[in-house]
């Protein structure tokens, strides 16, 4: 599995979304190393400008996303983000769909 996949796997559902972040309100926690919880995927949507997504060691990868692009964030992979060019982005969080109870 690529550490920065191009799309979310099937079977996930969105359950939470951050507000829009700009250089003025981007939390320090997102600019320093952090990760999502087990089973939680992220999808970073760039609305304006350019964002760089970095993986922390032992991984050595990064991705650049421009307005209209998205970056998939794997569960439990330590990363941080930074604006390459001022703009705006938000993150949508996904997890596996829970099966409906059978009647």
Indicate the topology.
Elements: E1 12-17, H1 28-31, E2 41-55, E3 62-66, E4 70-73, E5 79-96
Antiparallel strand pairs: 1-5, 2-3, 2-4, 2-5
What are the defining features of this structure?
mainly beta, 1 helix, 103 residues, RmlC-like_jellyroll, DUF1971 domain-containing protein, Jelly Rolls, TehB/YeaR-like_dom
Structure notes:
The chain is mainly beta and 103 residues long. It has a single domain (13-95), classed as Sandwich (Jelly Rolls), CATH 2.60.120.10. Helices cover 4% and strands 47% of the residues. Strands 1, 2, 3, 4 and 5 form a 5-stranded antiparallel β-sheet that branches. The longest helix is centred in the first third of the chain and has 4 residues, at 28-31. The termini are far apart.
Short recap of the structure:
The protein has 103 residues and is mainly beta. The chain has a single domain (13-95), classed as Jelly Rolls, CATH 2.60.120.
């Amino acid at each position: 599995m690529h550490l920065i996949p191009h799309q979310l796997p099937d079977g996930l559902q969105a359950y939470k979304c951050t507000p829009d972040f700009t250089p003025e309100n981007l939390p320090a926690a997102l600019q320093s190393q952090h990760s999502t919880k087990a089973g939680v995927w992220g999808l970073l949507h760039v609305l304006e400008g350019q964002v760089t997504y970095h993986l922390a060691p032992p991984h050595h990868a990064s991705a650049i996303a421009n307005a209209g692009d998205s970056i998939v964030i794997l569960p439990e992979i330590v990363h941080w983000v930074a604006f390459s060019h001022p703009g705006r982005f938000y993150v949508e969080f996904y997890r596996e769909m829970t099966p409906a109870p059978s009647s």
